[in-house]
């Protein structure tokens, strides 16, 4: 059988002391692409670049491969790893596995054999069915490795065969790397295996390997002692010029202190110069190396040009995608990088924002108002600088759609409107934080209050909307919240200038760090995982952006709407002049806005009337492209293009027209195809209008008014952080009030809960009912 397998993979130059077994279900075409990092001999500087990795080494620690009882393999975890490696291999990457587990697998087999042998002997000698207590002697690791290697490889073979992936076993020792000829043979063997699309599965030959030297260490680029699979994986990755080494263990990654300590924080990116600032905990429950050995091996590999990520391969919620997540550049584990960014990490920015935000919340309302007014003044005073940066962004984004360009563009008029809105916010902020909503005298000298307080740290993610930055900054300042702002790259220059002005205003009262602009390469999905640092996420952008954030932010509340599919229903009793004005403003004033009309519902009775002709003529004059709904199309001999979906947000000079028989049918249509954003009825019949207003379940419902009124500025809120279609917390345009929550404050005089048992409370209330009053303020 072995000769048959070898014949399928002829031409592999195996070294005299490198043990290799080949299992080849199929052969695939060789990989010819080379990653940019390896072509330059450098490791990747940022996580996002890991997508370019072509040659990847996956190191499976003993804690990943073995069960909790250290006797036998964790088959579920191993199957998940195999599935991910096979998937990446089939994408055209070159995968190698450095695995532990032979000792554990062998220990399981030998224990079984010893127990079976003992039970047989005892049964023969005693002549009775009852067996004495049997104990298993201490098993020597080399013997366990010898007994387990074949079984471990057979398991890998069976698993990879399910994905039509070829595997080969390679056993090495430290001598194979110190002897030049053996090292060349090993390199040649692995290169040929990779060329033929085979996954090498490498392990130290623990059956013959000597114990590690106690004082040996990882030193230099050319010398590394193979003491465990961490050092083996590092040496192999450098030797094979791998782009990425993924080291899976039973911890999330590298912590700034032992993981079991209360204040331990996971290090997202580790730089070689940070090695002296951390302390190490105890080693893994199994295996030879601890975290210190992993870090030393990782730094050695990094010095040799291979990027490294240390992550948890045992957590049941992430094991099934941890490897693919790392390769996709997601924030998993600890990423080792030689390039240290000039600014703080997003975690550090969040910490600075939270600390400064608490100081901001403690300021007097007048002080917060002064900051906002100063920011409004700066928008006007520095408008030339702002517009110059915006022009740079506009020039770089010339290939964007007209809708996005409209959002990206700033003008003197927009800046003046922003300044006016900010001053309104400053006035409204006077009684925002610390306002008493409810006061209850529970007993003599025992008073309970419910007061408004900031939510905490807000993460606002917006696309090509630079005017969003001063708006949300002012609202965050007024409500005493810290703010992380993540703007689109299209507005990078404009956002940078606006953020500098915001921090200049904040610096008046020493809270400059309360508003942070996230300009690093952080993916939105990674930001959404900071559930211990961020309290609320507010997305401002396309429906796709909002949906992606809502999916990613599993542990952080998201305030916003995924779509702005706004309807206008023209009733049979509508006035012509009002219809034309409202429809024109709702669709044509700012078609890219989320409160622009997308679907026009018309009552059947106004078809083929002067009113309907005037609506169509107006839309054509405004160059609005019309899509016919299914029913409207049935009335026409030559209709416009039929709509593909009645649930469409065009965001441009386009709209859908559909016909309904009644107001109730219009409501049903909106409930089915709308997004609960803003919907309008145009009619002169007050009863019909009131039914529409009462029955329609949308955040904003208007009668004889443009849908464009759904705006915080027009509502008198000064500005808004967005329009929410949720039903909890805030709904509709969210201004200052939507960024506040409450807390309960109890002022007593030595009172205890025992004074107010259920019976005692009822008795007290009965005796003092005329005195106790609930005052709502």
Automatic annotation (TrEMBL):
The pathway this protein participates in, as annotated, is: Amino-acid biosynthesis; L-proline biosynthesis; L-glutamate 5-semialdehyde from L-glutamate: step 2/2; Amino-acid biosynthesis; L-proline biosynthesis; L-glutamate 5-semialdehyde from L-glutamate: step 1/2
Domain annotation Aspartate/glutamate/uridylate kinase: ranges:
54-312
Q: Which Pfam families match?
A: AA_kinase, Aldedh
Question: What's in the keyword line of the UniProt record?
Answer: Amino-acid biosynthesis, ATP-binding, Kinase, Mitochondrion, Multifunctional enzyme, NADP, Nucleotide-binding, Oxidoreductase, Proline biosynthesis, Transferase
Gene Ontology terms: cellular component: mitochondrial matrix
Reactions performed catalytically: L-glutamate + ATP = L-glutamyl 5-phosphate + ADP; L-glutamate 5-semialdehyde + phosphate + NADP(+) = L-glutamyl 5-phosphate + NADPH + H(+)
Cited CDD domains: AAK_P5CS_ProBA, ALDH_F18-19_ProA-GPR
Output the GO biological process annotations, alphabetical, semicolon-separated.
L-proline biosynthetic process
Q: Which family does it belong to?
A: In the C-terminal section; belongs to the gamma-glutamyl phosphate reductase family.
Entry function: Bifunctional enzyme that converts glutamate to glutamate 5-semialdehyde, an intermediate in the biosynthesis of proline, ornithine and arginine.
Quote the subunit structure annotation.
Answer: Can form homodimers/multimers.
What is the protein name stated in its UniProt record? Delta-1-pyrroline-5-carboxylate synthase
Q: Which gene encodes it?
A: ALDH18A1
